[in-house]
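Colleagues,

Please find the record for the two-part complex below.
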Amino acid sequence: TQPPSGTLSPQASALLQTLGLSPPPGPPPTRPVPSVMWRLFRRGPEAAETQGSESAGPEMPQEPQPLPCHVEELGVPGNIVRHVLDGGASAPPEPALGSLCLEKPLFFNLSFLDPKEQLTLVRLELNFGAPGNLAPAQDWELSLSYAQGRLWGQPLYWHHREVLLRRTVPTLHDPLYFDMLALGRLGNSTFPQNLSLVLEMLPGRDSDLPRGLCTKLGHSLEASLLVVTLDPQLCQPTSRKR
Amino acid sequence: RATYLAPLDSPDPPCKARRLYINFREVGWHNWIIAPRGFMANYCQGHCFFPTATKISSLNHAVMQSLMHSVAPATTPPPCCVPVKLSPISVLFYDNSDNVVLRHYEDMVVDECGCR
């Protein structure tokens, strides 16, 4: 158990480390649980609340098990799924210039990844929420850049900035998903522990959008990463034959 | 021929799975484990005397050890009653980086016990 001071005993730390758990040190988190995480949990290997409650004996009914170490809904191998919020979400979007409607830096701290974990999916989700429903139903030109070496005090200026993708999206009403491992620059190398991206959006047609709408879009944008990893040590064969 | 069978007055019942509910509130993890609130982990307890060891999932070695224990209890201990079949669970929790994490754990629920 956790002492009042918030520090863990060595035994508790060792136990948590064995299970790969790193509890928050402070008060209980209030962050809502994303629906995708609930969905993945409910599709897990069991309904844990009821598992084994029928009888504790060799007569327990056997139900078909999903593939081990495979996240069926996402179609990738893995046994750890993390939902990571944009670390720069609280920063207001930068005033865009020219035809740009939105230019927003996104930061994701992935330093918690253990070297023995193999990345199998890094999916960026952009959700414009309710104000997105106010946006005109029209094409949007979207670009995503990988940025390195941010200049101090200059949120949108970088030593190195490289466009990862340009895409036309028909609407902002639905969440947008991007497989970051499929983008050559990131997928072909060691994934950065601190991922800095710059999102740029402009209307696909020559429309004169009010600046207020662009500001609303920037404020309503929720960016997150769904990170799936496979820790082979957690995925042992179910039976061994000699 | 073994003439010494399971002691009729043995204090231990035969090896089998017993109910054990791991309650995350009781261990003080309920503030950051989102789901489940707990799970039926079970555990194994009971004796592996001869012929019990022949009636449940046991290694051949354990059967022979139980037989030897029945004739020479002072020098040969009985086999151990341990989990032989387990199943996984998933746990949804907050980590110390404010991420929501779903982690899959193998071998968390005892489905069957045997002698080893």
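The longest strand of chain A covers residues 158-169.

Comments are welcome before we finalize the supplementary table.
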